[in-house]
Every structure is written in structure tokens, then in C-alpha cells.
Amino acid sequence: MFDTVVVATDGSESVKRAVDVALDLADRFDAEVHALSVVDASEVDASPQQLRDELRTALETTADAALATVEERADEGLEIDTAVREGRPAGEICEYAREIDADLIATGTRGRHGENRLLLGSVAERIVRTSPVPVLTVRQLETTDDAAPADDAAADATSSV
């Protein structure tokens, strides 16, 4: 059913659960996993000229760390192809999925920018609206004592076509 899964990550806390769900799904279907992090070009362009190179470097470092986290969370033996791109995150993620002929994009519902939207983060919403393949959005569970265990992560995931 799924041969190639793209895991879109920005390294935020809310995406860690999406990474776990995507890796579990890929393992169950013996799928190839591609982890992608996008440096948001609009953040760089909106910064003062004298800070742009430093900001770009900082964002690239964050992207590399996010991809390293995906690799760390993967079961031993699972090879993860990683990529960092610069541009508009939703557009770059969808384009990457097209280029590698992905069967699924997995992402968190909120990223580093927090709650920009009522239900989905603005990037997740754009991916759902424009993706050429199905999108699995995974929300972060509440951090309370009675929150569902991590093994039930797939039960709270939502999917869009």
C-alpha cells in the first residue's frame, strides 16, 4: 500500500509524535522513508539584511538536528534518506513528494510557529490542500497524566486525500 513515505519535520515537539507514527507505518509496510526539513525562505527574507546569513545558518542547523532526530527515532536497520530544502515549506514538501514519487506525506499538525490555525497549523493545512498524495496529519497529545499512551498514536492520527 505504501512504498515511499515522506516525513516532514521542523524539529518541534509537536512533530515528534508524527515522526513516530510515520516510522511505525513505514515499518509495517516495509516502506522507504524520506525525512525532509525545509528552511523557510520567508523567515530569512523578512529578517534584516545583516542578519540573513546568520539566520539561514541557524535555520539549516535546526533542520539538520530535526533530521537527526528522525534517524535516532527509527528502528535499527531502517535507512532514512534525508534532505534539507529552502523555500516555502508546504510547496517544497509537496514538490519533494512529487519528485520521489511518494505514496504518503506525514506531518504534525502544529510546527515551530505554534497555533496559527484552529485545528491545523498553516503549513499542515497547505500541505493537505495541495498535496499530490495522501497526507497523514498527527496531532500531539495533551501532556496530562491521563493522556493516551504512545502506542495508541495511530488511533489519533488523521488522514486526508
TrEMBL record:
Source superkingdom: Archaea
Pfam families tied to this protein: Usp (PF00582)
Domain UspA, first and last residues per copy: 1-139
Biased composition (Low complexity): 150-161
Gene3D superfamilies the UniProt entry points to: HUPs
Transmembrane segments: none
Region (Disordered): 142-161
InterPro entries the record matches: Rossmann-like_a/b/a_fold, Universal_stress_UspA, UspA
Family the UniProt entry places it in: Belongs to the universal stress protein A family.
PANTHER family: STRESS RESPONSE PROTEIN NHAX, UNIVERSAL STRESS PROTEIN UP12
Record protein name field: Universal stress protein
Native source species: Haloterrigena alkaliphila
